[in-house]
Amino acid sequence: MNDLIFKILISIGVIFNLFGCIGLIRLPDVYNRLQSATKCVTLGTCSILLSLVFKFGFSEIGMKGIIAIPLLFFASTVAAHALIKGAHFFGVKLGDQSMIDDYEKDKEKKSKK
Amino acid sequence: MNLFLNIALYAQIALCFFCLYRIVKGPTIPDRMVGIDIFGILVVGICVIIAVLTDKMFIIDIGIAWIILSFIGTLTLAKYLGGRKLNE
Amino acid sequence: MRYIVLFFILLIVWLVLTFDLTFPNLLVGALAAIITTVIFGPHFVRDVRKFFQPQRYLWLLIFLIVFVWECLKANFDVAYRVLHPAMPIKPGIVKVKLNLKSDIAKTILANAITMTPGTISVDLVDDILYVHWIYVSSFDPEIYSHKVAGRFEKYIKRIFD
User: Domain tally for chain B?
Assistant: First the structure.
């Protein structure tokens, strides 16, 4: 039973990683790529780490897997936040399909003052 | 069991080539950095699968250390990208 | 007071990570925890009484269940947009006003927004959060601030504020 859950969780992890990487290739500009890649790859890797608990139980290795999940979660979200802010400061414009950019407007307003 | 883990390992390595494509091809510098960041997270999954496959459990410790190192590297590059000092 | 709380949290994390209750391991863990406390203590949360109120942990459990569900929904949403041949995206950056006070609550909310369907937080200026949204469905601030932040705000207000 536990072996089956282990296999299912690893499969889910690899499939979500695949979706994230397809998004990294297909989507048009850096902001959308970051969206798909961060969400899917983080959840996929969390699922692979969680599978350790079902394989080894709450032993030394399973606890390492559990500790790594919040670490990975905060690390990847903060890194995505820093990258998207850095890209905006670097001057990458939003893609052609974009509707609205409040951040750019507010930055211009601030620099005028 | 071994066959399943081998397939998962090679699938994960194939996904790394998607990231390499984005790093090589990326039209702007931030695109390349996104590729590096995602590459770092994929390596953690590879570490876990190799640890279970070869039964050497210290490789999971390498994975945990890799999360922190990749995080610090991405933060430094992102700060540099924004043209700010490191203590802002 | 808050230095002591931080020290014990770090020691527990060390013990869980190494899973070894012998005396030398405990000594090394205590030494590492003391060094970390001295360096990072001034940046820890100010009001440590929050750690001893049990109803916060109950709300944290409910929040985690809601959050995991939203996370799964986010992933299927992204998978749908990526695999669809025409890629139905309308990206844009909108701004959302928050009613949270403490810094830690704002940080957790920004991280939670990054993992929810189609949104990623860009910048936080005082209490205005700029959010990159992959599918901007309306231009009315009332509607989209409820859609983006309203799902988690009431839980986070009870847990961290």
Answer: 1
